[in-house]
Design a protein that fits this description.
Elements lengths: L7 E3 L15 H4 L9 H16 L3 E8 L5 E7 L7 H18 L7 E5 L10 H6 L4 E10 L2 E12 L6 E7 L5 E7 L3 E6 L3 H20 L13 H7 L17
Parallel strand pairs: 1-4, 3-4
Antiparallel strand pairs: 2-3, 5-6, 5-9, 6-7, 7-8
Helix pairs in contact: 2-3
């Protein structure tokens, strides 16, 4: 008997749209991650990425934690950065048999599918380009000027032979500013910091995306009020753990 999973679907505030956007940018889907996971998470990510690609999704990151015994979190998105409840459900149904066949874990585990969220990880060059002007936390795998941890404003992103270099402006306690050029290939982790400006920018993008969806021929208008409350509950992680004889492989 393979591992027992209880997939959970999470809605990251103001990021996951109720109505799917139909545009699929193949080039954006194939944009490589410049910051990859390590160890078992890297192996699982390489298994998951092709299955997600077939659904019009791209992998953001994989995280393995000890929550609820063991949890495998797969973070994904569309090429435009959105992620719907339906996307999470489809991704779980597609990944479950693939993970079974590859025997990704030696113990029972929960499978979680989620969007990147507003304070998202930055893993691709386009992630950093969209984050220009916003604050980020960056941890380097290789020290720069004798330090590994940085927090500051992303000022610019320049292409280089290894992918990209990010100019990060760090403000000291005395309000003085220092700019650091950080190669993305040497980063171990990078993530946006949740600020009021970032939330306002996310709201503007969501509003523009919904407006664009309405303009598309044959596009159905967003219908948040008509969403199935049971699906919303499941999306927020309301499903309870179950044993080998409870529910099907997708937690229903």
């Amino acid at each position: 008997m393979g591992p027992v999973r209880d997939p959970l679907f999470f809605i990251s505030a103001r990021v996951m749209a109720e109505e799917p956007l139909q545009t699929v940018d193949a080039e954006a889907l194939d944009e490589p991650r410049l910051i990859e996971d390590a160890g078992a998470a890297q192996r699982i990510g390489r298994i998951a990425a092709p299955a997600l690609r077939d659904l019009g999704l791209r992998l953001v990151r994989v995280k393995i934690s000890a929550a609820s015994g063991a949890t495998v979190q797969v973070m994904a998105e569309r090429s435009d950065g959105t992620m719907t409840i339906d996307d999470c459900e489809r991704a779980s149904e597609a990944l479950s048999p693939v993970f079974d066949a590859e025997d990704i874990m030696t113990q029972a585990y929960r499978l979680e599918l989620s969007s990147p969220g507003i304070d998202r990880p930055l893993v691709r060059r386009s992630d950093f380009e969209r984050a220009v002007g916003h604050e980020a936390k960056i941890e380097m795998a290789t020290p720069v000027d004798g330090r590994k941890r940085f927090r500051g404003r992303i000022e610019a992103v320049a292409p280089d032979s290894a992918g990209a270099t990010v100019r990060l402006v760090v403000v000291a306690d005395d309000k003085s500013e220092t700019a650091f050029d950080l190669p993305v290939a040497a980063m171990g982790d990078a993530r946006l910091v949740l600020t009021d400006d970032l939330i306002r920018a996310a709201l503007r993008r969501e509003k523009a995306a919904l407006k664009e969806a309405k303009r598309r021929p044959g596009a159905a208008p967003p219908a948040k009020a008509k969403a199935d409350p049971k699906r919303k509950a499941a999306a927020r992680g309301a499903a309870k753990p179950h044993g080998p004889d409870e529910g099907d492989t997708h937690g229903r």
